[in-house]
Amino acid sequence: MTAVAAAPAVSHWRLSGAGLAARGLAYLGLAVVLFLPSFATDFSKTCSLAVIYALMGLSLNIVVGYTGQLSLGHQGFLGLGALVTANIVAQAQLPIWLAMACAVLATTGVALVLGLVALRITGLYLSLITLVFGSAISSSLFALARFTDNNSGVKIQRPHYLATNGDWYLVCVAVLLVVFYFDYRLTVSKVGRALLALKENEQVAEAFGIGVTSYKLLAFALSGAIAGLAGGLYAFRGELYSEKDFQDPNGFTLALLFVVMCVVGGLGNRLGVVVAGLFFGLINELLDDLFYAHWVHPWMQHVPVLGSYYSSDVKASYLASLIGALLLLQTLIFNRGGLGAQLRPISRWMTGHRFELHDATHSGPAVAEGSSVRA
Amino acid sequence: MSVLEVSDLSIRFGGLQALQDLTLTVNEFEIVGLIGPNGAGKTTAFNCITGFYKADTGKVVYRGQDVTRTPPHKKAAMGFGRTFQNVGMVKSSTVLDNLKTAQHARVQYDVVTGLLGGGRVAAEERALEAKADAILEMLGLTEFRHLRVGGLSYGTLKLLELGCALATEPDVLLLDEPSSGMGPEESHELGERLIELRKAFGLTMLLIEHHVPLVLSVCDHIYVLNFGRLLAEGKPSVIQTHPEVVAAYLGGEAPEALAATAETPEEAALDEATHPVAAKKAPAKKAPAKKPAAPRKKASS
Description:
heterodimer; A: two-stranded antiparallel ribbon; 15 helices
């Protein structure tokens, strides 16, 4: 019972003035790091994608991490959000915010339908159904000529006050912060407790007075809403909706990437999933920069295996998917809690607790035993 | 008015009639025991009453209201608290979080307010925590407050589960083998605790239990199930000596000594009234014994 003895010591500890200042500086530093990319033209566009991936991570995390239902079709929601936003702006000339609101409504609705399926089917078969959903919606609805401007892609424009990539990057970051806050609220309110309870044992949840049906639907709806928002941001990021981004094989690669992000970040761990999302959003671009740097390119092309990066047709995902696979393996074998568990001492410190490498009091969806998807 | 009235409850799983025409009544502030050998249908009866199973026929009436088809989470909100045979708690959460989760139906703020946050939500969350702490204090489990449920011992878990059931603010508490995993000493304590809780919270209880001394000491009324049917019912003193019950627990026939005991006409009439099922099934062996020390010991094993 050493853990019990340690518990009171934590509650006696108080945050000192210096400690507060140090944390304030850390937040300031974080804000600067988040803000800096907005000055770059091309890099800020890449960073926007990273933020959108982080949003998708949070979206999927609600379903997989908090509720324990595996979805392999989340690119469908991203694509649907992008499709609705782009088409409303292009065809109905509605303001951008209204279009994104419509996108959120649409994805929420479709997610609710998927949620209804999830009420009856769980585990492997649900994963299969979400997989088919993502594939089917992207090869049917997304490809309709009416929605793709006769297969040339729907071109849209950001409003003049958000004309640059840097501006849009800041919008993405702002949305991420807001969603991050709501996700935090979710986990500390009755909603998060209800989802965790029903993830572990639906009968126990019912006995505690939790309506399993409505909370499962709520989880899907929230996840769909966030994905729709991410889709809207995606459409305006490139100022183009192209169905090819979401159609297989790209679509399936994306769906898989989102799941890998969640697992590597740590299922149920908000911060870990966001960091993993940012990482996977940036890695392609960073690898490209590295491989084509003047001090790497000349000799790298002669290196076996790695050298094929330059000749490969699928170079965009060639190394990134390899890195993803390796990270996934190391997470599953050595570190089930994912990045989030590794970052936990820092995140605890940032939220005004003492810096500790271990804490016995941690509870919630990201706890190791709780992070397995129920099949 | 009785708190819980169950009439003619039946459920069939494939070829197995798990429960047939179960009729039982739980009155206000009573502790009613539901006993029977393994596989008798006790937990099935619980699941039908609390709505986890949909009974094929029959009715469950709670304080005059028909709740046969009410889903379990709504019943929990109405005041049905229950525990499970294999500890029903959220294992990856801490003890404190479990007690807060259990208060779900009592939370006033709605989902959207909860997501937005703010002073009112924070105040209510603090109230939930205070309530959880009070329950922990009462059960003497405060030291486990911050520990994850997954790592606790079975006896502690059963007690905590009782705490979670209390946190749902029940009116009627259905306990499925609360003393399993406890020694004789602990289960004796549990019995006293149940009687205390009844007084403190004004509870009515329905209790599935294998530990016969506990049932006999705390229950006001006992129903005995065997093969999904009601075998007998009555006060503990009656059940204790009931030959059918003894036979069901021991397997085979009731001891000759019990059946041979003389019976006055008054007793026979009373017997007929209190357990008609048994009377119908085996009219020859329904005589209660006067001094039943031996069978009771055997029944508890």
